[in-house]
């Protein structure tokens, strides 16, 4: 089993997201993340899908996506250099004044952003890679046990520019 990324260009029409996601649920494939947004062309949306699967299942998924009428293009990012980010919010509650100072230090070191706070609670915005967000969660589990909640958004990815080709 391996972590995989697919980027789809799809027609920007009502029901396309439901049809593509039902393709996965109908076959009992589990998605790790699915993010959709408009592109520079308002008639086209880009879906970024993350999943964990074996080679055979992944090839089957790509073939099914390519057969879908609404799918314009399927790009497999599995073995391609990509830039990937995931949005995550962390809310930490019941902090002492000293813990708020410690939190401010963590925010500075990890290039995070405090987007809301009061005397004992803060909300942190993390736009990092999935692995880095996982590491931050482990840090917050140790530093603020049982006093934080997390909301994670889907990841987005784009192919990296290969500067060695020109």
Can you describe this structure?
- The chain has 166 residues and is α+β, with helices and mostly antiparallel strands.
- It has two domains: 2-80, Alpha-Beta Plaits (2-Layer Sandwich), CATH 3.30.70.260; 83-157, Alpha-Beta Plaits.
- The protein is 31% helix and 42% strand.
- The protein contains four helices and eight strands.
- The chain has helices spanning 16-26, 55-67, 97-109, 130-143, and strands at 2-11, 31-38, 44-53, 71-76, 82-92, 113-117, 122-128, 148-159.
- The strands form two sheets. Strands 2-3-1-4 form a four-stranded antiparallel β-sheet, with helices on one face.
- A hairpin with a 5-residue loop joins strand 2 and strand 3.
- The protein is elongated.
- The mean pLDDT is 90.
- Residues 5-79 form the ACT domain.
- One of its GO terms (molecular function) is acetolactate synthase regulator activity.
- Belongs to the acetolactate synthase small subunit family.
């Amino acid at each position: 089993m391996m972590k995989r990324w697919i980027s789809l260009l799809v027609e920007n029409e009502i029901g396309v997201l439901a049809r593509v996601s039902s393709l996965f649920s109908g076959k009992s494939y589990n998605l790790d993340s699915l993010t959709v947004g408009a592109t520079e062309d308002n008639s086209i949306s880009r879906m970024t899908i993350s999943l964990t699967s074996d080679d055979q299942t992944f090839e089957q998924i790509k073939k099914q996506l390519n057969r879908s009428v609404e799918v314009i293009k399927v790009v497999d990012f599995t073995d391609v250099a990509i830039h990937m980010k995931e949005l995550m919010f962390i809310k930490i509650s019941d902090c002492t004044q000293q813990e708020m100072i410690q939190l401010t230090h963590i925010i500075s070191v990890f290039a995070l952003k405090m987007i809301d706070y009061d005397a004992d609670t803060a909300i942190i915005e993390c736009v990092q890679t999935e692995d880095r967000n996982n590491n931050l969660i482990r840090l917050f589990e140790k530093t603020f046990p049982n006093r934080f909640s997390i909301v994670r958004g889907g990841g987005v990815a784009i192919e990296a520019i290969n500067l060695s080709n020109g």
